[in-house]
Amino acid sequence: MSAPSIIVGAGQAGVRAAETLRRLGYGGGIMLIGDEPHPPYQRPPLSKKFLLGEMSEQQLWLQGDGFFIQNDIEFMVDMRVSMIDPHLRRVRLSDGAEMDYHKLILTTGSHARLLPVPGADLRGVHTLRTIADVLDLREAVVGVERVAIVGGGYIGLEVAAVLREQGKAVIVLEGEDRLLKRVMSPLMAEFFLKLHLKHGAEVRLGEKVVRLLGQSTVSGVELDHGEQIAADLVLVAIGGRANDTLALEAGLPCQDGIIVDEHGQAAPDIYAAGDCTRFPLRRYGRFVRLESVQNANDQARAVAHAIAATPEVYDPIPWFWSDQYDVKLQIAGLAQGFDRYTAEGDPDSGSFSVSYFHGDHLLAVDAVNAPRAHMLARRQLAQSAGARAP
């Protein structure tokens, strides 16, 4: 019997790669290996509806047992791959077993960055990436009154919104001089600052946390100018890092992400897709790493096409979204490198959009409660042949 194609990582990208291979008529064995004790699940609702308790675990599942049976996909749960041997085309599992592969697809995702300060390992300090993280956080917040969130990015702000809706006192500590500085305009950052202040969250900008306070359980944070802020719970939301250690140990090229080409290939017979990759985005003229459902799904499809000998160049228009209180932010494109921006609509009305340009080239559009503007932006970006960031 020939070796199966092995997919390492049972998230959105892993499931999509397996599903697409079968849809394209791939007749070889497929094995999907996940390191969590759950079926594959959606991650975006974790910091929103699932944290609020408005979604059950079952509603998060991407596919049930029937999908794997019907598509002749072997799914291994709660299992890790501990070693890749690209020369022998073999992997070793965490239980010591070794398996040969025909093709290897790495969809290992990313993990939360940890806060590199004393006290980061205290009880009551949380990150948010997995179902287990959210279940721990949901249980922990029941008995607390004041929560400190370190990081004013999307995850931090989404959790702040949820906790304010639950009546918790929330303080957001952001090291930059504005929220979401890397990815949006001052106008948009000011809108989200006002939004959180209006809902009763405290937001402190330009604040660097140097220590988490407490003996065995966290009791607060200390800032670089000596101020100490009391907190019953601390959420660290300072971004994510690619899970590329396995690839790096196997000798694959990595740089906070497995370096792949426009078909998702990292090495002979080895591919990667999703959060764990850094890939060439032609329309922006650089290598990028994207943490999004769009990238996980679409890059996994491109990998499956390459393996099925129907290759397609992967050069997407990235899109993302964020839900905070009654606001839905929808983003098309990448704003990094913009040198000017224009706004349509009135931020005070709660429905407006911001377009980002480099020279005459449209790079991205942020749309707040403006789905039509978002869809028009995606069409416009698709028609633009020359968008290039510096």
Low-confidence stretches: 386-390
- The geometry reads as globular
CATH architecture of the largest domain: 3-Layer(bba) Sandwich
Quick one: CATH class of the largest domain? Alpha Beta
**What radius of gyration results from the CA coordinates?**
22 Å
Reconstruct the topology from this structure.
Elements: E1 5-8, H1 12-23, E2 30-33, H2 49-52, H3 57-60, H4 65-70, E3 73-76, E4 81-85, E5 90-93, E6 98-100, E7 104-106, E8 110-112, E9 125-126, H5 131-141, E10 146-150, H6 154-165, E11 169-174, H7 186-198, E12 202-205, E13 209-214, E14 218-223, E15 228-230, E16 233-236, E17 240-242, H8 245-249, E18 258-259, E19 265-267, E20 270-272, E21 277-281, E22 286-288, H9 293-307, E23 319-324, E24 327-333, E25 340-346, E26 351-358, E27 361-368, H10 371-383
Parallel strand pairs: 1-2, 1-7, 2-3, 7-20, 9-16, 10-11, 10-16, 11-12, 18-21
Antiparallel strand pairs: 4-5, 5-6, 8-17, 13-14, 14-15, 19-20, 21-22, 23-24, 24-27, 25-26, 26-27
Helix pairs in contact: 1-9
Describe the overall structure.
There is one protein chain. The chain has 390 residues and is of the alpha/beta class. It is built from ten helices and 27 strands. It folds into three domains: 174 residues, FAD/NAD(P)-binding domain (3-Layer(bba) Sandwich), CATH 3.50.50; 125 residues, FAD/NAD(P)-binding domain (3-Layer(bba) Sandwich); 58 residues, 2-Layer Sandwich (Enolase-like, domain 1). 24% of the residues lie in helices and 31% in strands. It has a six-stranded mixed sheet. A five-stranded parallel sheet has the order 9-16-10-11-12, covered by helices on one side. The chain has a five-stranded antiparallel sheet with strand order 23-24-27-26-25. α1 packs parallel to α9. The chain starts with a strand and ends in a 7-residue tail after the last helix.
